[in-house]
Amino acid sequence: MTTATKVPVKPLGDRIVVQPLEAEQTTASGLVIPDTAKEKPQEGRVLAVGPGNWDDEGSKRIPLDVNEGDIVLYSKYGGTEVKYGGEEYLVLSARDVLAIIEK
């Protein structure tokens, strides 16, 4: 597992902060994709993880399934795009994460 960089945005509850990975520049056959035709990325690196939501009794936190440094697939239109300190981040709810990519 790689260590994530320190990010100045601290998520609350079941939220996570993701840095979207660059979309593919070429197709499998080698054709260059113009900026206007590129799809919105759905893959990113988790930079920060919130503490999780409280259980029904309100006595303990339920930890999230993702960790800092994980590469995740997330919903195409999920989350909120945030620009802070010249960097672009995506703040997602844990339910917007579809899968963890194991490399």
The overall pLDDT average reads 83
Strand content: 25-35%
Strand order of the largest sheet: 4-5-1-2-3-6
Task: Give the end-to-end Cα distance, rounded to a whole number of Å.
Answer: 10 Å
* Annotation, overall tally of beta strands: 6
SSE string: EEEEEE
Gyration radius, to the nearest Å?
A: 15 Å
Q: Could you say which structural class the secondary elements and strand pairing correspond to?
A: mainly beta
Summarize the main sheet: 6 strands, antiparallel
Uncertain segments are none
Number of helices: 0
The 3D shape can be described as elongated
Helical amount: under 10%
Keywords: Chaperone, Cytoplasm
Subcellular location: Cytoplasm
Pfam family, one: Cpn10
Main location: cytoplasm
Describe the structure.
The protein is mainly beta. It is 0% helix and 33% strand. The protein has no helices and six strands. It has a six-stranded antiparallel beta sheet, with no helix packed on it.
Entry keywords:
6 strands, 103 residues, six-stranded antiparallel sheet, mainly beta
Summed up:
It is built from no helices and 6 strands. The protein has 103 residues and is mainly β.
